[in-house]
Specification:
alpha+beta, Pectate Lyase C-like, 3 domains, 3-stranded antiparallel β-sheet, about 35% helix, elongated
Length: about 650
């Protein structure tokens, strides 16, 4: 009896007409149709498939354009609306990311239902045509041969290799790839990661299974389907494990220079977002998670930030005047040069925060405000309200901050304390030029300002060991103009010293004969010609470097790495080669800026001058063998899909 059961099970498993093997094997042939009925059915299904396929392509491409075209602002601001494809209804971008996948799934499901009916009809048509041809060959005399049943011309009905490739791409891979790209866009929001991962995985698994099921009988099925089985297994493993590493899939929001004035962002999780120079004036960020965000030079004036988490956030130079920061978490945050005048800081946690040169004049504190281990070097506490003078002593360098006369008395500091601190700051050129002190309630405060005017021309030490005047963005210096001053966290930043980038005063505009097309070109250069093999010694093909960085301070190293792969002697007209060959100001250490360095040139383009608004500029940061980062100086967009063969402008920089 047990042997009989095992035999039955074995027979069922090996039978292709019964489950489970029938799931991934084509259906057996059905009863044949009449030729006229077959022709009509075949044509109607083929036309329906053609229309559905084009609808699917249209919707998918529309989705891709919207995903690539919309900024991350659309993910968090609900009043950003777009038109839905086919329906035409206006919905928010978040809703679009939820609705569009279901529309794609419906279309691809309908496409495969039709395709599933068409395939056996196509097989029957071919077999019937063979019979007709065989019978026609026997006809003699005046008898007319029977016509064969022709298929309508469509990509999925052609039998050659290239049409079959595009059919598989459109039918089985276009929708999964589109959905994964949409998922990547949505992964900036934590709550979207798991739902999107499961939806896209299920769709991809279903289409993989269909592709396996429809493998022709003439093929060696296991060998032919091996890549699909491997992909299927990897997806199943991904679905089981994704919940354990979902946080690693998250990408940071890119909100640089975005206008979010008055935006309602309460409770939103924006950890790690890049929001430098963003306008968040009067925005509602109550209880928002802003851990590790980059808010350098952002405008947060009058913003509602109570109970928000700014742990280890970068707020250097941020404008937080009159902001509500009650009970906010600013542990380990960088607040150098931040403007906090009139801010509400009751219960705010500044533990281990860096507040050098922060202006807290007139800010409202409480006994719960925590300054434990915070760096208060040269911070301004004049006119601060309800400041806990016992708690502030737990801070680092609390005795190097500025206080009003009343505060000096309570803290038992000498009446000349402010003058001594200001003198030390000036002698070390620490920070920016202060405002006049006429508004401060300190009768002795005029003296530091007068002292500042007399020592304004003092010198600071920089990297080459010499002394140079205090510099600011746009100053002519070192053969060009100062384009950027290093900030805390930048590579090469040294506290108390001034370092940064100098940009050439104009674009490089040499004339050369392009090795690829033999044309004469002036002022535009390729990263690489876009070929896969060198055609001559003066040519350069795609070569992947794998060792370029996006960071500030890495442009020179990037240029060295490029020239090691593409030597200037052989490839004299590449973007990196002409940047290194530049000799502005008699200097020989110019280089092609990295992605982030190029972005600083764009931010300060008005002060530097000479840029072409309608052109893109090359960076030294590679993406892949065929692409490198560039940036449009019209829109400011940093372009991901930029072929190395493109001809763009070059503006060299050098470090000081």
């Amino acid at each position: 009896m047990p042997n009989l059961r095992l035999k039955n099970i074995r027979e069922r498993i090996t039978d292709r007409k019964r489950a489970p093997r029938s799931w991934w094997y084509p259906k057996p042939d059905q009863d044949p149709h009449h030729p006229d009925a077959l022709k009509e059915l075949h044509t109607s299904y083929a036309k329906a498939i053609n229309k559905t396929m084009f609808a699917l392509l249209g919707v998918g491409l529309y989705c891709l354009l919207k995903v690539f075209g919309e900024s991350d602002k659309s993910l968090i601001v609900p009043n950003t609306t777009i038109q839905t494809p086919l329906v035409g209804t206006s919905i928010s971008f978040q809703s679009f990311l939820l609705v569009a996948p279901f529309l794609l799934v419906i279309l691809v499901a309908y496409l495969h239902i039709l395709y599933g009916y068409w395939l056996p009809l196509e097989k029957e048509r071919r077999e019937m045509n063979k019979k007709i041809v065989a019978e026609n060959s026997k006809i003699t005399g005046a008898d007319k041969p029977e016509p064969t049943i022709e298929s309508i011309p469509a990509i999925f009905s052609f039998t050659r290799r290239m049409p079959r490739f595009f059919t598989n791409l459109i039918f089985y891979w276009f929708v999964p790839l589109t959905l994964w790209i949409m998922a990547r866009k949505s992964f900036a929001l934590k709550e979207f990661i798991l739902p999107f991962s499961y939806i896209v995985s299920v769709v991809t698994l279903s289409l993989l299974f269909l592709q396996i099921n429809r493998c022709p009988e003439s093929k060696k099925r296991w060998l032919w389907n091996l890549p699909q089985w491997i992909a299927l297994g990897m997806l199943v493993a991904f679905m089981f494990k994704v919940s354990s590493f979902s946080d690693s899939l998250r990408r940071p929001l890119d909100l640089q220079r975005e206008d979010l004035h008055g935006a309602w962002l309460q409770g939103l999780d924006m950890a790690g977002a890049d929001m430098n120079n963003a306008n968040l004036q009067e925005a509602n960020l109550v209880r928002a998670n802003l851990q590790g965000v980059n808010l350098q030079n952002a405008n947060l004036q009058k913003a509602l930030l109570s109970v928000a988490n700014f742990q280890k956030a970068h707020l250097d130079g941020a404008n937080l005047q009159q902001a509500d920061l009650r009970n906010a978490n600013l542990k380990g945050a960088k607040l150098g040069n931040a403007k906090l005048q009139g801010a509400t800081l009751a219960g705010t946690d500044f533990e281990e925060a860096d507040l050098p040169l922060a202006n807290l004049q007139g800010a409202l504190f409480s006994e719960e405000t925590n300054f434990s281990s915070a760096d208060l070097s040269f911070a301004n506490f004049r006119e601060a309200k309800e400041l806990d003078h016992s708690g502030i002593r737990y801070a680092t360098n609390w005795d190097w901050a500025f206080y009003s006369n009343k505060q000096l008395l309570i803290l038992k500091l000498p009446t000349t304390h402010n003058q001594e601190v200001e003198k030390d700051r000036l002698e070390n050129n620490y920070g920016q030029e202060p405002q006049e002190y006429s508004d401060f309630n300190d009768v002795t405060s005029a003296r530091p300002f007068e002292l500042w005017k007399t020592v304004k021309s003092y010198l600071v030490k920089v990297t080459d060991g010499y002394h140079h005047p205090k510099l600011k963005i746009g100053d002519e210096y070192g053969g060009g103009k100062v384009a950027y001053l290093l900030q805390p966290g930048d590579k090469g930043y040294v506290e108390g010293e001034q370092h940064g980038l100098i940009a050439a005063k104009e674009d490089i505009k040499t004339t050369y004969i392009d090795a690829w097309n033999k044309n004469s070109v002036t002022g535009y250069y390729r990263w690489s010609t876009g070929q896969y093999e060198n055609k001559s010694k003066n040519d350069y093909a795609y070569k992947e470097l794998l060792n370029t960085s996006t960071r500030i301070g890495e442009g020179a190293a990037n240029t060295d790495n490029i020239l090691e792969k593409y030597p200037a002697a052989t490839f004299p007209s590449s973007a990196a080669a002409v940047a290194r060959a530049y000799r502005g100001g008699g200097k020989d250490d110019w280089f092609l800026p990295s992605k982030s360095e190029l972005n600083q040139l764009y931010i300060n383009r008005s002060a530097v001058g000479g840029f072409e608004d309608y052109y893109s500029y090359w960076s030294s940061t590679e993406i892949s063998a065929g692409n490198a980062w560039s940036q449009s100086f019209g829109s400011g967009a940093q372009n991901y899909y930029t072929y190395k063969s493109n001809e763009w402008r070059v503006r060299p920089v050098r470090a000081f």
